């Protein structure tokens, strides 16, 4: 029987690379996301290697999440790793210039969506027990403030604290919990953040060496396959060519 990984946001970036990484290692895949055609393409690509189940899913919809979990077919029900990856940033402008809808979308996806999926899968993960993992994708933005980070960074701070608190409650179940916090990585993330501005996205990554989706997929796979008795609480990963800046000072 293959181990089963359940991935949210498998249609792009980290999620898609993670699907490929786990497929390489022989895990059965539950792949979710809103863009069905991308899920189908990924299923077509990977199902020669491993069993693949796809489900079109908006993580913000708690009822839909429950249904997808309840309807997992045989062979995909004993979930060993949940990868809470679906998420987004919007509106890199200063807080005072951002529409309230954009704030709500980030909270609904990165916080409410993540807890919807975690809540629905917790019983399955506890049933799996020893060696099971909940791996949530936080961000350096959840720990370190920067201009334009406003609600995005705050949603990722939630991911960190929620992960630690889950660990407290899951002690004794064998289920591990990790917050993986990447820095700058080239995916569709900036295209989404800038609402489709390809030039702005290209500009951010030009002339430097960002992380790749495959780099993060490798970290996720590493955390999920450590010996059962090891729990990485938080793993912050930056490109070598990214670091902090000095404080900004408002002067006369
Ligand atoms: P991408 O935009 O490439 O991928 C985001 C994924 O999230 C897509 O598969 C998208 O699928 C899915 N998603 C977004 N909203 C929803 C929703 N409502 N329901 C279900 N799925 C959704 O970006 P990344 O791969 O970079 O981002 C993955 C995660 O990593 C996010 O949580 C992001 O915040 C985090 N992160 C990214 C960093 C970076 O620099 N790239 C750094 C640190 C953290 P679909 O649109 O098909 O639903
Ligand atoms: C996204 C990475 O560096 O834009 O979480 O905050 S960064």
Automatic annotation (TrEMBL):
Task: Supply the InterPro entries for this chain.
Answer: KR_dom, NAD(P)-bd_dom_sf, Sc_DH/Rdtase_CS, SDR_fam
List the Pfam families hit by this protein, alphabetically.
adh_short
User: Which Gene3D superfamilies does the entry link to?
Assistant: NAD(P)-binding Rossmann-like Domain
Q: Which UniProt keywords apply?
A: Oxidoreductase
The reply on keyword Cytoplasm is no
Ranges where the Ketoreductase domain occurs = 3-187
The Swiss-Prot or TrEMBL record describes its family as follows: Belongs to the short-chain dehydrogenases/reductases (SDR) family.
What is the protein name given in its UniProt record?
Answer: Sulfoacetaldehyde reductase
Species of the source: Stutzerimonas xanthomarina
Q: What is the lineage of its organism?
A: Bacteria, Pseudomonadati, Pseudomonadota, Gammaproteobacteria, Pseudomonadales
């Amino acid at each position: 029987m293959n181990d089963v990984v359940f991935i949210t946001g498998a249609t792009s970036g980290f999620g898609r690379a993670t699907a490929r990484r786990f497929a390489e290692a022989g895990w059965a895949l539950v792949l979710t996301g809103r863009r069905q055609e991308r899920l189908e393409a990924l299923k077509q690509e990977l199902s020669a290697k491993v069993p693949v189940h796809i489900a079109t899913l908006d993580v913000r919809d708690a009822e839909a999440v429950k249904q997808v979990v309840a309807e997992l077919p045989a062979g995909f029900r004993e979930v060993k790793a949940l990868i809470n990856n679906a998420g987004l940033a919007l509106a890199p402008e200063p807080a005072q210039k951002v529409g309230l809808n954009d704030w709500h979308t980030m909270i609904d996806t990165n916080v409410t969506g993540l807890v919807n999926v975690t809540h629905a899968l917790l019983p399955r993960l506890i049933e799996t027990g020893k060696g099971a993992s909940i791996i949530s994708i936080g961000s350096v933005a959840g720990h370190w403030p920067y201009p334009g980070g406003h609600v995005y960074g705050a949603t990722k701070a939630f991911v960190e604290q929620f992960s630690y608190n889950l660990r407290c409650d899951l002690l004794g179940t064998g289920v591990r919990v990790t917050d993986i916090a990447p820095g700058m990585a080239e995916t569709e993330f900036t295209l989404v953040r800038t609402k489709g501005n390809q030039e702005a996205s290209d500009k951010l990554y030009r002339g430097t060496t960002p992380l790749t989706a495959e780099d993060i997929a490798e970290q996720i796979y590493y955390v999920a396959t450590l010996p059962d008795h090891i729990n990485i609480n938080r793993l912050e990963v930056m490109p070598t060519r990214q670091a902090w800046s000095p404080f900004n000072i408002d002067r006369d």
